Amino acid sequence: MILAGGSGTRLWPASRRARPKQLLPLGPGGETLLAAALRRGRAIAGPRVLVVTAETQAEATRQVAPGIELLTEPVGRNTAAALGLAAATLAERDRDAVLAVLPADQHVADEPGLTAVLETALAAVERDDVIGTIGIAPTRAETGFGYLEVDAATPGVVTPVRRFVEKPDRATAEAYVASGRYLWNAGMFCASAARLLRELDEHLPATAAAVREITAGRARASEVYPALASISIDHAVMERAARVVTVPAAVGWDDIGSWAALPALRGSDADGNTAAGPTVIVDGTGNIAIGDDGTLIAIVGISDVVVIKSGDAILVVPRAEAQDVRKIVEALSARGLARYL
Amino acid sequence: MILAGGSGTRLWPASRRARPKQLLPLGPGGETLLAAALRRGRAIAGPRVLVVTAETQAEATRQVAPGIELLTEPVGRNTAAALGLAAATLAERDRDAVLAVLPADQHVADEPGLTAVLETALAAVERDDVIGTIGIAPTRAETGFGYLEVDAATPGVVTPVRRFVEKPDRATAEAYVASGRYLWNAGMFCASAARLLRELDEHLPATAAAVREITAGRARASEVYPALASISIDHAVMERAARVVTVPAAVGWDDIGSWAALPALRGSDADGNTAAGPTVIVDGTGNIAIGDDGTLIAIVGISDVVVIKSGDAILVVPRAEAQDVRKIVEALSARGLARYL
Q: Cβ–Cβ of A324/B283 closer than 8 Å?
């Protein structure tokens, strides 16, 4: 199951309401993030790949992934509802169904390596009915990720998770990284559909009931979805669930959560600049410059800046503050400029 | 005489080969720099205003200034040739002609004040056959201007110039400013046509001969111009001429030589940002953001940066290094991207 429903405002102005980040040609050779995620999914599931996305993105998603099975949500209610809908749908078809959940907005450099750790996690799920995660050795005190506490982290070895903490504050994240006993949660989950539904029954019963009603044809998604809680599976379930395991992995994983992640996806030149489209950078290093439509981006005398031209908007933000793009999105709404969103 | 022949590469990407900076609607209400210069010229000369420009810019210049008398040069050869051509043309009509030379790429806040100092300078020219300049109290150690050494600087009072130094190095400029005995040369000159031609005869004889031949109809500009030296009137004449005077002036003068000068021309908001077109600036001060065609410029978390979108190009440069735009122009030529010039 590919989670492809995000609005991706942190990749504005390339990502817009009608063009979420997983559909952008950001990867090498212009590959979309969704196409790369589908390849990762097919490596473990063959043709049995399901994409969950927003109804408003269904058309554009089908263009990137023709023939794929789509499950659409009438409104976005974060990942708990999306996973619940997928789990209920698959459980209806096969009560023993097991699923791997792969977010569409990630980059994995070592795809065979990822296939191996996912297969290890899926085997643990089938054997022990655990919830399997993928653990990444942290390289910075990132506050946007979840953290998995473990006793040891041997790549490829199924390891019990003592505790799951979603998005800690900066001081906590720093302590976690310093301790050496925490891994980043890569956002991929493996579990049986039945286990996921049981967890939702316990921790988010209204959502669990709603997705069962929808799947059984007793309720329309458009009617029940708007009332569902908008909460992530991490907060709703993972922080509270028992028997969570992780498979530590060194597979070149990156969350494409902001423009700052683009060099991981596309590489950079000898000056550390990452550029797409016609660009000229003089006396500058570590810049990220992405143009479109043949518009030239010229940068002189400045470093570590993100410059994005996409359609009718240009973004300029320091690379270290790429997360603050959401402030622009808020300001546009507040100032009557929502047409640029 | 309005000097309007520059290519204005420092205002790229708004200024291009076919659209020099004096024809850009950079001023308040979208006024062009040329239109403002014409108004300053008419204030002292009535309808007797002559514009010297490049042949390639004649059509665009006529659109901004319909009915104006144009003198065109087949190729640019800097200001010595342009002034020579104008002086020879006017001397042919009236051997006692006196002219005021006004660059088109300047901003003057106090136009009546400027009219008064120009009239003072012109009176000195008619009385004493001097070369009159306008002196501006320096506010920084600018290396792009000429400096006038004087014993005293009383606004509005004709003052002998001891020495004229064009574009000193940084240390020299700093010493000049610290001494209190130097004024910036505002780039405006008043002199008789005969005096200008005599100076050229002495310091740049080939140019003097050529402009006389062209004016007398004995040579075609297209044939003799390419061989002329490309040198400014400042280097060719002003540094060497005797009997130069200046009228110190406090008239809100600015040279619109780079994007950094734009706040003087257009003003700035409470955060010190200068913006035109749709812009959103969050957590940033002292930025200059100029868009076109409704393209939004969004800046977050960065200050004192120039962001210009014009046609098919975007420029990003620190405000303090706005002069370095010429490096972009050079790089574009070197990399086969001259179509963006």
A: yes
